[in-house]
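The instructor's notes for this session suggest beginning with a concrete chain rather than abstract definitions. Hand out the sequence below and ask the class to guess, before any prediction is shown, which regions might be ordered.
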Amino acid sequence: MVNYGIKNCCKLAFYKKSTGALAAYFPFGNSLSINITGDSVEALANGSTIITWQANRKAQATLKSQTISPKLLTIVLGATNTTLANGTMVQFESGKIGSSSPTYTLTKTPSIGTLSVFLTEADGATVISELTAIESNPDATQYSISGKVITVNATNASKNILCIYAKDGTDIDKITISANQFSEAYKIVGLGVVRGVDGVDRLQEVNISSATAQSNVDFTYSSESPSSFSFTFDLAADPVTQELISFKSL
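After discussion, reveal the predicted structure:
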């Protein structure tokens, strides 16, 4: 194999150590960093080191990405991923009540008992007061609803409104993080590309025998820039071969 530089990161497959089954395929890793450490033991003679031993080699792998998937989240968080046949999702909706008719039409039909209605300043966020629900003929402090249409008193015509409610949904993907559940061990197989000094691109396979995600993870929801995810795995050696990591190149 010629000398080479690493051209791009791995596509990754995660296999459960407990069953050997594929748990997730993740082709969007921006970088995969591997850190290896070991203990050093020294023998001294007359105050000088004359023999050193290396032992207890350990390793960590860090995956960085700007994309994420539910299956990868379950791996790195020790979470459970379920699909709810029926459930609700919160909705935030703001706008202006009609001037000629004191009504406001929601985008979705609220789930029963979930709607809260507020009058706001022009910014749609500063709450002035909350309106209470009534079946019909609302006064200035009340509202009524039929389907998606909210009706208020005529004195509230042209005012700004904020509605918080839940809508019914089906096949909702739910990830649950429990306080007493942690990530299990996975075998990771990655495939990346290296470029040799001869200018030829070659595939390189990375095999990690056993990886367990660390419990500390940060998530940032940002409108300023794409969110970046960084996950660190503690690596363990194969109990038979003592292999931590191996690399195969074409």
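Then share the key points. The chain has two domains: 4-38+55-79+179-249, 86-173. The domain at 4-38+55-79+179-249 is CATH 2.30.110 (Pnp Oxidase; Chain A).
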